[in-house]
Task: inverse folding
């Protein structure tokens, strides 16, 4: 490939993890704001402008943020879990020298379960907020 790597010596796993950090941090930030949004008072609008930022605005912002990072997090996580057999040993598809089913991957499996259930949790939260 004619591309240039800014940081030499990165493994395939490290490259996926670096690309994984930004959407993961964004998702954690948004999820940390959920309890704040649930208990705070609506922000009044500037004089003569719209309706302000109420619960519906916060919900829209949350759903847009999650939809932007959701597929990236899930794709990167699944890349770090996709294994294949080489010489009777299970190794990562993206890096044949990394063994599969090591302790760091078990945390990723828990993350996959969380990320897959996230849309259902958000739908339930939206329904709860609309009833209030």
Result:
């Amino acid at each position: 490939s004619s591309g240039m790597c800014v940081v030499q010596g990165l493994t395939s796993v490290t490259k996926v993890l670096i690309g994984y950090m930004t959407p993961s941090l964004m998702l954690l930030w948004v999820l940390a704001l959920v309890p704040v949004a649930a208990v705070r008072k609506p922000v009044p609008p500037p004089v003569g402008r719209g309706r302000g930022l109420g619960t519906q605005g916060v919900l829209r912002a949350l759903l847009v943020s999650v939809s932007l990072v959701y597929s990236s997090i899930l794709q990167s996580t699944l890349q770090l879990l996709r294994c294949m057999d080489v010489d009777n040993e299970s190794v990562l598809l993206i890096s044949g020298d990394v063994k599969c089913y090591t302790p760091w991957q078990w945390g990723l499996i828990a993350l996959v379960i969380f990320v897959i259930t996230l849309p259902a949790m958000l739908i339930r939260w939206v329904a709860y907020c609309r009833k209030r």
Q: What stands out?
A: The chain is about 60% helix and 5% strand.
